[in-house]
Amino acid sequence: AKPVGLVRFASESELAGKTYTFLRMRLLGYGLVMLTALGVVVYGFTDTVDLLVEIRRDRNSLFMQMDETTACNYYQLKVESFNSKENLVNIQVLGAGKFELFGHSVIDLSVDNSTWRSLRVCGTDIKQRRTKLLFEFTLGDQITLKETTFLIKAR
After folding, report:
1. Cβ(153)–Cβ(71) below 8 Å
2. DSSP 125
3. For labeling, which of 5, 44, 92, 96 is most exposed (least CB within 10 Å)?
4. Rounded to two decimals, what is the model's pTM?
5. pLDDT band for position 1 (cuts 50, 70, 90)
6. Among 86, 71, 83, 88, which Cα is nearest to 125's?
7. What is the residue-wise DSSP string for 49-105?
8. How far apart are CA 138 and CA 88, in angstroms?
9. What is the CA radius of gyration of the chain?
10. Whole-number Cα distances in Å, 5 to 2, 8, 9, 17, 37
């Protein structure tokens, strides 16, 4: 007859006669990390936006002084739509002052869902050298606001 139990895999505490517990602190910690990672991945897939907008100031010239009271800034806009039902994006400029948008204020994304556009924004009677400028993008009933700066020369 073959002796039983000569070779086995056991921890030192099991060999000392202590009882084995499956739910140890390390196992609970690993489980908590896995649940957190799963929650972050699920949140990333469910919390999506229909319109993604990026604004870059044209760095070639900080501003262009048109006349005594009017200065213009140039911007590069990237507009990307993830909504297949809506294709027209309307652009408006808001801010503390009189701003006017030059360029296409409506972007058609029916051919390509992503596009770059160059726009010029001119401000009249702006009092501060650096003013907050707010671009408002409307895609269907969703409104996306992006803030940037409008620069003029020091007076």
Report:
1. yes
2. S
3. 5
4. 0.63
5. low
6. 71
7. -SEEEEEEE-SS-S-EE-SSSEEEEEEEEEEEE--SS--EEEEEEEESSEEEEES-S
8. 8
9. 30
10. 10, 6, 10, 15, 41
